Amino acid sequence: MRAQRRKGPASAVVDGVSFSLNRGETTCVVGESGSGKSVTARAIMGLTRLEPALSVSGEIWFDGKPLHQMDNPSVARLRGRDIAMVFQEPMSSLDPLFTVGSQLTESLRRRHGKLPNQNLRTRLLALLSDVGIPDGERVLRSRPHELSGGMCQRVMIAAALAGEPDLLIADEPTTALDVTVQAGILALLERIRTERGMAVLLVTHDMGVAAEVADQVLVMYSGRIVENASADEVFESPRHPYTAGLLSCVPALEGEKPSVLPTIPGSMPSPEQRPPGCAFHPRCARSADRCSTETPLQTQKPGLEYACWNPIEPTFLPMPTADVPTHTAQAPKEDAR
Amino acid sequence: MGYLIARRILAGIPTLLGVTLVVFLILRLVPGDPVAGLLSGGPATPELVAGLRAQFGLDQPLPVQYLSFLGDALQGDLGTSYATGQSVTSMISGQLLPTVQLAFAAALLSTVAGIGLGVLAAAVRNSFTDGLIRVFSVLGTAMPTFWIGLMLILVVSFQFRMLPATGSDGFQRLILPAVALAVPAIGVMTRLVRANVLEVLGENFVTALHAKGLSYRTILLRHVLRNAVLPAVTVAGLQIGGLLAGAVVVETVFARQGLGNLILQAITRNDYPVLQGVVIVIGALVVLVNIVVDLVYGAVDPRIRSSLAGR
Ligand SMILES: Nc1ncnc2c1ncn2[C@@H]1O[C@H](COP(=O)(O)OP(=O)(O)OP(=O)(O)O)[C@@H](O)[C@H]1O
Ligand code: SF4
Ligand SMILES: [Mg+2]
């Protein structure tokens, strides 16, 4: 997948991004601000089609269906039913003028069509209690401004679940929330994923979050995936120097998040200023001559992909990669490339 | 709610007082003498002039004149016309309805057409249709209503003989004046609604609605429309004031009954009480309409409604 700005310098904001997601697993996308996480997430849902400034090319396969070949109405029909999304700003992601009840009803209709009133009510309340909202009656009657951020995010998740999707994309669902609320929302997402067996794509810039919930981790840097591996691999022996850098500055989950990465000097280049070769080379302690001229290739080992000329060798004896029980062993259901 | 209404009415009082003071002073500061006009028919002896001045109270110092006028006005008495000797209150109430009808017809037209055109333009933004609508709205805002009125009479009434050019009776005779009066307001409304729709389209919740799988139509007509039109309600209300004032001009173009007719005659004769009365009544109407608009806005916007309930 490649996403390019239509105006200005022709630099791809997302380039060569390719990965697959598995049913029942949580895949975390991590990376600094501006690395293309959100563009990738929106592109899967075809939401980038609504942004005239972006042009996305490549292939997106979902459940055997080529989303990239579908027209807009067909993709819209998948949204909310097969793929649902939860956004970073819960307060501004709900229509301020409509009650929670009517907005949830819209989502329920995506799968169930028009429901008789009594049935509808029961379902709405069940949805809300599913996401840990006990006083559903009151919340249904409320409008977004009457609810807290955490409450709004629970409502957003309820709306996403209403369509009984196979894939839930959550783009930094907890970033705008209090630390105490964050843990609750993450636990909720995890519980729902296990219960419903759907695939979850969780975008976060917080390695601590990824460590908690991820089965698979995609590390993005400057529009590219630099490492894509099972959570075990990534956290026990990261191969890409950037991943290692991210890990070394993980604060305790409860702690304050630093706004800059203390152990990686410098900052990520914007798509226009991306250096040739490996985009990370100006900041990389392991960079070699070839790093500044040649773009590293993605090493294609099942369950362990990284793009680096000089990867970190595992310091302890890892399990042989082939034996690692990863998602590749199962038949991939969802597939986003 | 009762508290809010009372507060808004109280806030309207200084506005109205200001209006009375300004109109009172302007009338007396511009050249022209009502008494001289009245006596132009015959010999104007100094005694006759002095007698009339005393009768109208014009021999009193200005502050005294103003206060007595204000005192009468508070009791609902706007004085007596110099020219006809009729009570101004009854002269105005006889002509009020056609003017209010015209202003509200134009307000309705500009709101409906403005919202329709604005949403359409935003939905097909940067297309040919959008360009056309934008040109129309700019031109419409720039054209004076009397000129629009004349053009309408020329084309619709004389060229195509579709609608009567002049007169006040019936719905048919309301159409052309209402259109002439509404065109600039439609221009303002269209541009506002278009801008609002585009702004709302960029909001996070619209992306979220797309992610829910709603069709573009539903998103535009159900969610974006409501969010974009709501702030325009206030402007629509504010426009009514301008439309009432504009009605006065348009009425004279179409030779319609109404306050415009009244005011035109009063100006030519320097009939102070009638002029003051008409201006004050229009001022009071504008204040009233604004209060109503505020209340309606509060009632339809849940955010404001609940913040008021919290007080
Ligand atoms: N609609 C758009 N038009 C043009 N450029 C865009 C658009 N959306 C995003 N970009 C650019 O794409 C790059 C990646 O943005 P993206 O929002 O995906 O980053 P991110 O990894 O989600 O960052 P964050 O952690 O801040 O959310 C940025 O340089 C951004 O400026
Ligand atoms: S390719 Fe070179 S510069 Fe890039 S991360 Fe690997 S070692 Fe560092
Ligand atoms: Mg983002």
UniProtKB/TrEMBL annotation, chain B:
Keyword Transmembrane helix: yes
A GO molecular-function annotation: dipeptide transmembrane transporter activity
Annotated Gene Ontology cellular component terms: plasma membrane
InterPro entries assigned to the protein according to its UniProt record, in alphabetical order: BPD_transp_1_N (IPR045621), MetI-like (IPR000515), MetI-like_sf (IPR035906)
Keyword Cell inner membrane part of the UniProt annotation: no
Keywords: Cell membrane, Membrane, Transmembrane, Transmembrane helix, Transport
Subcellular location(s) of the protein: Cell membrane
Pfam families for this protein: BPD_transp_1, BPD_transp_1_N
Domain ABC transmembrane type-1 stretches: 96-297
Domain of life: Bacteria
Transmembrane segments: 9-30, 102-124, 136-162, 174-193, 228-254, 274-297
Topological relation to the membrane, as annotated: Multi-pass membrane protein
Family, as annotated: Belongs to the binding-protein-dependent transport system permease family.
Name assigned to this protein: ABC transporter permease
